[in-house]
## 1
Amino acid sequence: MKLNIGGEEKKEGWKILNIQKKPHVDFIGDISDLGQFEDNSIDEIYASHVIEHVPQKKIKQTFEGIFRVLNQNGKVYISVPDMDILCTIFIDPKAPIKVKHHVMRMMFGGQTDDFDFHYYGWNIEFMKNTLSAAGFKKLERVKSFSLFKDTSEFAPYGSPISLNVIGYK
């Protein structure tokens, strides 16, 4: 099975896990508790702009849970707002206030509903350390996954604002 966590786009070969009941969602649940899935039962996990919504105290268990459910050659695709890029835009003295406000919302979440809050800010160093601590053997940073039409390729100010990585079990 391939699992798109937090997704909404229906795609052949993929199931969707979402914290909210929406069209095309196959499983209701939270990425920080993948207890409804067996060990080594998932080939690939895709999580675009989901991990930053996990409270800091649940980060370790979340990544360990992802590692647990992935099969022996499994991989996880993770896209998160890249704090290094967002901070660079935010502190640019030439950036208009409207841009800075938009960047701030990308940092802390749009806060449009009870789930749209960011609890953790990611950069490549944090991601490498966290994936490694959970047992992942290799991490690859990529420009694009080319899997779904989502925020992973969002580039409102020229360059993408997302950190896109693939973790290999």
Note: The helical segments are 59-69, 83-91, 97-108, 124-133.
## 2
Amino acid sequence: MGLAASQARFLGLTARKSNVEYQVQQINQQRVALSNEVMGLYGKYNDLEVPTPPVVTDYMKTTYTIDSTLEKYQIENFTKITSGEYEGYYDVSLTWDEEIAKAYTYSAKDSVITTKKGDDGYSYLHFQLGLDSYLYDENDLENSTITKITGDYEKYQGLNTIMKNQGLTDGTFYMFMKNGTAYYTSQNDLESTEYETVDGKETYYGTYTFDYQGAQKKTNTATAKAALTQENSGRLSTIQIINSEDLPELVDKVYSITTSSVEDSTLYDEAMNNYEYKKMLYEKEVEKLNAKTKKLQEEDRALELQINQLDTEQKALDTEMESVTKVIEDTIDKVFKTFSS
């Protein structure tokens, strides 16, 4: 390669190297911009307010219960009367819960009911209800766990309530006990069941329904004019009912008041719903920031790969430039040696 050609090659390599260095500078600037964006996202992370669940103790309310032997009357609210006949007394609202007996049904899935008729109703009954087994055998009453009932209905837990619910005044019933609750089925219900004949006995497979008595709460309300006394802390201590059309049996009696703190479930549920909503928004925002961060990191890795490729190219250019420089130097040496001789 001649001197002119070598110099032209060297200038070309120098231009390529300058271009590579310029590309590296441009890519580094892009990476700096990406880094600034990532830092901005981290700043948004730090600015996010992490929602905290409500604490039950922050949602307690004071309740006042009248120490009466009749019912557990609770004072819901009280307002001082400022004029009229009862000036200086209080308008008081009272509530109390009353348990009302009610008939319920129990559907026993995967039941196997085996029966055998006798001269007077069923002589044999076997209820296989899941893992529980109950037996009535008129020839082995001592070991029977099913009781046959033909009268004295009031003696049996909840049976009167069930009969009233069904519009019955008499009949034959079969009862078994489970976890302290009495469950009943009537002879009419058993007779109307569709059975299969197995080994001389009638057998039913499926879901069989029994009856039992449960309790249903009913909340009652009443109003009264009353005198109230308070402790130094401001809590109520005694109440004297002056007038009440709803509760005349309490009039002119003085009762002490029991104070307690209970969870205000309405306010707590509202706070919990608000927390769940904020939590959903927070998680959604975090997910969005994570997606943006991941995308920026992928772009940065792609730019880093480009820099590595340019770095490899630059090293190859340096090697080639060193080679061309050596050729130029050798050519110059030969030229000067020619002229000096």
Note: The helical segments are 3-47, 159-166, 187-191, 265-340.
## 3
Amino acid sequence: MKVIALIPAAGMGKRMGADINKQYLLLAGMPIVARTISVFEQADFVDEIYLVTPSQEIPYCREQVVERYGFTKVRRIVPGGAERQNSVLNGLRAMADVSDDDVVLIHDGVRPFIPAGVLEHAVETARLHDGALVAVPAKDTIKVVTDGIVRETPPRENLWLAQTPQAFRYAIIRAAHEIAEAERYLGTDDASLVERMGKDVRIVMGDYRNIKITTPEDLILAEAFL
């Protein structure tokens, strides 16, 4: 069974307020997305990498990221869609020579601090179960609010903050995305599409440093981590 990394990096990064898309911002001299790809490139158990970027950025990504840093596992750069969910489906459809039981690790292109050990645990969990969701327990009290009024305070011990990667066997995640596409359902993450099929997605303990770099403050924090 192969392990395939699918890295969506098609976001526009409006919250970053930069002149270029956030995935290409430099983090200690290296594009964020290149740092993310390098984690999977160096992981022995990952066989292939598929990137998803806006179609007009494919030449730039190929030249300035894949070729410049010598990433040999990248099989294809796939055009993104209108939403992240569309981009992931494009990536799944573009995969060649893939079997139903191959494991797909779907990971945000702007999360460069995912530990390799967490990746491996997610793969092992996905092989045994319907899916694996990397997450961390919520530290803060969460409030359910409607019209500015607190309606509920759910028990914190039941609340987890979803991260990526989210790992699934290919047949399961492909079916989940195709069903969502046919029913015009837009989920909040890939796991939610598998959950609505009645499948059991298992939690894999993540890392609080596995941040998604989306704001200028996140970039400062990322530099501190380095």
Note: Helices lie at 32-42, 58-67, 84-94, 116-128, 170-182, 190-195, 216-225.
